[in-house]
Amino acid sequence: MKLEDYETLGIPEYWIVDYLGLGGRRYIGSPKQPTFSVYQLSEMGEYQVKLFRDSHPIESAIFLNYSSVWNRSCLRSVLEKRKPTH
User: Fold this and answer.
1) What is the reported pTM?
2) Which contacts (CB < 8 Å, 24+ apart) does range 1-10 have?
């Protein structure tokens, strides 16, 4: 599992963006909704997760000067532009 690999490697933080709210309730809560998850490695060597939804400011321990607001429509627009065309 990637989570265990990241813990073993000591990766201090990683993000998961579920802009469609398709993740399991275990990961994004209930009711299911678009969620920006920030996993931060604790001093105990285990990840703690912070969930951000709607227009809540995103907090990052790595990017201290990073200031952004979770904006589903903006993110969807960016991702749609990256889809391969056939």
Assistant:
1) 0.69
2) 3/39, 3/47, 6/39, 6/41, 6/47, 7/41, 7/45, 7/46, 7/47, 10/41, 10/45
